[in-house]
Amino acid sequence: MPALGTPAPDFALPDVISGNEISLSTFAKKKALLVMFICRHCPYVQHVKKELARFGKDYQGRDLGIVAISSNDVRNYSDDAPDRLKEMAQELGFGFPFCYDESQEVAKSYRAACTPDFFIFNLERKLVYRGQLDDSRPGNFKPVSGRDLRAAIDAVLGDKTVSPDQKPSLGCNIKWKAGNQPSYFK
Question: Is residue 129 within 8 Å of 99, Cβ to Cβ?
Answer without folding.
Answer: no
